[in-house]
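Quick log. Single chain, no ligands specified.
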Amino acid sequence: QAVVDFERLGEHAAAFQGHDVGFCCLGTTRARAGADGFVRVDRDYVAQAAELARAGGCKHFVLQSSRGANAQSRFLYLRVKGEVENLVQAIGFDHCTILRPAVLLCKRQESRPMEWIAQQFLGTVALLFPTAYSVPVEMVARAMVACALQPGKGRVKVLENGAIHELGKA
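-> predicted structure:
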C-alpha cells in the first residue's frame, strides 16, 4: 500500500508500476468538496491515476462508476462519471471494466442523513427487488475481483447493477 498526494500524483509514478490490474473506487461528494473539487477528484484524479497505471504496465483497469453515467448529462454527478469513463477507456488498456452500481449500501464514517434515509428505504425495497435500486459495497468488491480474475473477451466491458449482483454472488 502506498500513500500518495493526489495534488502531486505525477511524483508518485513508481507506486503505479508493475501491476497487472488496477482498481479504482476513488470519489467524493459535491457537498464535501464543492463542484470544482468533485470534478477534480472524480474525474481528474481518476484519469491521471489510470494514465500512470497504464504507463506502469497495467493491462486491466477496473473502474467503479455510477448507474446513469453519461458524459452528456445535465447533472454534474452523472456527467463527470460519464466523462471519466470515456477518459479511462481512451487510455488503451488491454481490458477496461466499468461497474455502474446503483445506490451503494454501506456504513459511512461521516454523517449523510439523506443518504442514510435512502439506504434504509432501499434496503427494505431490496428485499422485494434485490437488484433494482441498490447494491451492497461488498458485492461490488466481489464483482470487481471476479472481473480481474476472468476479464472475458473484448477490450471494454460495462456492468450495470444487475450484472454486478450476479457477478458478486459467484
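The chain has one domain: 17-169.
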